[in-house]
Structure prediction request, 1106 residues.
Amino acid sequence: MIPAAFDYVAPTTVADALAALAEGGDEAKVLAGGQSLLPILRMRLNAPETVIDLGKIEELRGISEDGDTLVIGAMTTYADLLASDLVTEHAALLRAAIAEVADPQIRHRGTIGGALVHADPAGDVGAPVLALDADLVITGPGGERTVAASDFFEDLFTTAVGEDELLTSIRIPKHTGWGAAYEKFVRVAHQWSIVAVAATVKVADGQIAEAKIGLTNMGSTPLRAASVEAALAGGSTDAAAVAAASASAADGTNPPSDLNGDADYRKHLATVLTRRAVLAAVGS
Amino acid sequence: MTAVDERPAEIGNRRLRKEDQRLITGRTKWTDNITLPGMVHLAMVRSPFAHATITSIDTEEAKSAANVVAVYTAADFPDGIGACANAWPITPDQVTPDHLPLVGERVACAGEIVAVVVARSAAAARDAAELVDVEYDELPAVFDALEAMKDEILAHPDKGTNKSAFWKLDSAEAGTGGDVEEALAAARNDGVVIERNYRQQRLIPAFMEPRSTVVDPTGEQITMWSATQIPHILRFLIAATTGIPESKVRVIAPDVGGGFGGKLQTTPEEFITLAVARRLGKPAKYTETRSESLVSAHHGRDQYQKLTLSATKDGVVTGLKVELIANLGAYVAIIGGGVPVLGAWMFNSIYKFPAYQFNCQTVLTNTTWVDAYRGAGRPEATFGIERIMDDLAAELGMDPLELRERNWITHEEFPFTSVAGMTYDSGNYEAATARAKVLFGYDALRAEQKQRRESGDPVQLGIGVSTFTEMCGLAPSRVLGSLSYGAGGWESAAIRMLPTGKVEVITGTSPHGQGHETAWSQIVADRLGVPFEDVEVLHGDTQIAYKGLDTYGSRSLVVGGEAVVRAADKVIEKAKAFAAHLLEANPDDLEFKAGRYEVKGTEAGIGITEVALATFASHNYPEGIEPGIDADATFDPDDFSFPHGTHLCAVEVDTETGQSRIRTYACVDDIGHIINPLIVEGQVHGGLVQGIAQALWEEAVFDENGTLVTGSFVDYTLPTAADTISFLTENTTSPSTTNTLGTKGVGEAGTIASTPAVVNAILDAVRHLGVQDVVMPCTPERVWKAIQGASAAAETTAEAQPHFDADAGNADTGSTGEGNDQ
Prediction:
């Protein structure tokens, strides 16, 4: 498990990182925690000429508030997010999902930005970020631009981040007081999600005022279960109503078939997990 | 002659293991930690194809790469470099393809080595290995044992057949029981006959430390360090297959990080490292990557089982017929052919079946070769019989424990000669079962199961039973010889009494995580009456422990431990003459206890360590006796040891998802006397998890090209502590009669017993929903589909989801995916 030789640079500012990226071109890879990149290198699936480590860029770390928005630096680790009161209070869904990522070692190394740009559809960060209607701030040679999460994920391992750009922060509208649950289905604890459902629900007057549901590994990108959201909105929190609304969770999805389950099984799981996630989110 | 001491007895003491500090921190001598002056590093070039002719190998570019010392192919060794031996031909006419470490003409499975790159660093070797250009002509390949049985595609075309050997045991022919066909015919007329096909999936031993070998060819003897379970057998086979005199070879197994049978092989990599070191005259090291380990270290299990069982309508079994087809992989590994045959004596298990027949056909395929994996033959047999006993109970509407009780050997009947001809020396199935039921809360769980069933709870509860026995402690050399097993079964030990009062114990067993240093120290501390801390256990080096047959088959304590006892007794006897001389007493008046020889009825005495010091100086010792009290012993038991146990497992099956979750697991194992309860619990816990993993999680899957899809731990789903529960374990004690310690092997018990307990529990949870079988591993998808009425034999989709995409991250934005499609 020895990677091919590469040049290593560890810039301390975003500007320097962008310069390194511009210089490295398509022979450069960004290291943002390394929980996927290092296996790729060690198994020699890729042999970049340059690895640009973002780990020393302080401005990319941390969680702060900007009015009604939570701002998370792209290099913030899972462990930092789990320890954050701001995340717990205003983005409970993100916390619920991240608590299910791999194991403590990985949660202390892996970063939210690294996972989002890696864009593995089985990863646990995409669905909650999508469900929470986050905006993703991308910085490139021409400055910053903001992409809605719904436009960020383009395909398997493909995002709106260009070759000469970096994801720098994630802006999540505060979902204060929303219930949240992440139902992750795996065979063994350290696995990627076979299917997972991220649900966050605002309950008012005993009714579901609004529900947002993200699906993990039900297609080549994280998905929103829009029809379930519509069916839940304004409806009852009782089990039967939630079950009825959840029945369409897999409509229009195109999940993979592999060792862990065929597409039809995953579609079935999506409906069960959606029901469970919503019920858990409303606290029943 | 056991010493009685004021100190608490060491045997039975829950001692923390003395080897744990260095093993757990890794601050010890693993093979890969060894660095020698001038050492070169190896990287292997392996075939990506399962079956192909090698048409050309171009090594020029690799040879000219930076820091490369040499690149070798089979052509560079016209006289060969040794061979991976099959040491257990199960029949005289067994088809056994030559298994060469470095292949020159034709590869018979993916992962075979076709070239080796030697460089000044491991990184340079790895880099250059990618520059070796090998051209292959692919050949038709066969992977599945049933396909191979058709002989349409041949794994080795020159052999003309895939069938390696057929082995049969028939109780009527052997005179150990009745005719099974008659029993089946009678039951068809007036009784019950059930026929079942079960599948033992292929597993990967997945030991923690990857295999590693260092060879130092400088000096008079060649020294090989290797992460192996079998240093002594390896030394013998190096000499036997390379022509190097055995006296010129020293093999050392330093600390070894697990094996589970996976390291009881002589490997191509060992022979290649040896050949390269000798060719260059330089020390050489090879350490495999985890990816290489998963595809090229031997695999385990992989059997098709057909069982036909006859019984009376009230549940007395009258006959059992077993037909196995066992996939050997591409070669007949060191004991690969024999592993399934071990089932011959185990399918009848703890029962008094009057008629029995066992048939085993081994077949060759173009897959990784298959050999022993924790339990080796006994888990397969236990699974088959315990599954069909539960199926029979369901068929008859009987409680599965009652059915077993109706058929098992009662404790008054020991020693009992089974229908397969084995004589079980001791056991008490009633006692273990009664205790297990209490521990488990059997009646309460049955009541809960009934309630959940009646209320239509989406989470159903099932209770699985596994009562087992096994034969272990390999062992009686004469019996092994009668089966054409290549090695003996004896074990050797020596004890050196050092002048400073310390004691060195040399054992021919070769621990790789079991805790021999602690257990052997406990035995010797009690026997010689010396402090536990003063005992040092040496092992794994053929120059120190020059004689031994290594560690596998739960043999170390019952055979090797007894050899230690006998060596200690010889020391006590030898020292007695010196003690009498020094005390000026008659030896017959001396009594040895608590480490001292005392003149009966007096205060006069001398400690055994004082005698050791006196013999070191030897200024004063009896005439006609050589000045020394060290001793060695070789022990060859008269029979195997036969541990048994009752394992009860409760599983909750989520019928909405098919997910199975173990709720309670209780087991009572009878392994005779226990030296260290903590080590026993560790062995049982680890064994249970490994057996449960076969039931629920692990499977080696090849795709249609013979590529191992489960080629990393992303897809070969090993459990971790997070996936297990706390087990309820206890012991009953029926001492073994084949060693004076009364011990029975425990290394494999948990693995042997647990797999059927889990699968039986799953089936018990959903049988009322029409489910008859779920193929292992019982994945949520398989269980759910079985509940939906689909075929339980649904094949796994032999494809892995990519998580490590070469182009991931900062990928270009050209393509457009499906996006959010709702």
